[in-house]
Amino acid sequence: MNKVCGQCENEYKRISTHWSMSSDCSHVSLSKNQREIITGLLMGDGNISRNGVNPYLRCKMISENYLHYIDNEFGVLGRGVSQILTASESAEQVRESGFYTDADAADYSDVYKWCTVSHPEIQDFADWYSSGEKVFPKSLNLTPTVLKHWYCCDGHYTNNIQIAMSKESNNKDKIDELFENSGLPKPSNYNGRKNCDAVFTVDDSHELWQYMGEPLPDFEYKWPEEYRES
Fold this sequence. Notes:
This protein is an alpha+beta fold.
């Protein structure tokens, strides 16, 4: 999909390459909202990749409408949504892995991918991997947008919110501080060790739902009915 550069008004198949090589046009800066979406995604299903000088963010999941929503939020900085696996192919991969040899396509979903263009400012987020693994910075601010996208990726609820954080299972004190420093209730406890969930009380969960606001496309089921748009 070609993108129009707002500076020279020409169309480019690889607009990031145009910005990198042009003497007259430069990369469009990430907005505050886009940075917060990247932060929340990177805390969840997103990851940073690189196939050139500048890194980019990518995300793979079954929630196509959510990815289209994000792509719209990024405008010229998004690369669109594409299907990478059908439900049948997903089941076949599971069977071939030996994890579940009877995997049936009826139990699986199509998988989609969304990416940003390569961008120098995404290097700020690539630094999350400086230790060799993805680690949440201690300085994160859990704004409503950041928390909402993290929750969409890794959260679930029955009567109360739980957020999966297996890669941060040894950093519970840091997670507590992230919530407290953002003026939010910290988890009441953590379930599990390796596959760790941050667990919130029922009252604190309602405070978090109110703080995050209405749900995002495909993730309405992660909010109680009273918080969904009527």
